[in-house]
Amino acid sequence: MRLTNKALGAILGAVLLLAAIPAGVYLLTPRGGSVRVTVAGREYGTYPLNRDATITITPEDGTWYNTLVIQNGTARITTSDCPNQICTHTPALTPTTIAIITCLPHKLTVELF
Fold it and tell me: Considering only CA atoms, which of 93, 94, 106 is closest in space to residue 38?
């Protein structure tokens, strides 16, 4: 069976449309109501952005710490005892941010949820 260019174009268009649907759903899904904190891939906690809070993130053995400050609908790491301090220099997360805060020495991530 031989397909015409018109039929191939229709099939290709359908495939592209089907591939675009999940991306569209992801991009249009509201995000940013909360931040999720994970340590070494395990969830540490989820915190709403509409409630100001200061959370000290530390493992059970207390060998390190990071301070997460949620204030005025933003979340940022303000202090850490890691050697490079990249996490403290990362801009705050806001409901419109497409970003993540990481502290690689502590295997910590803060992401919008």
Answer: 106
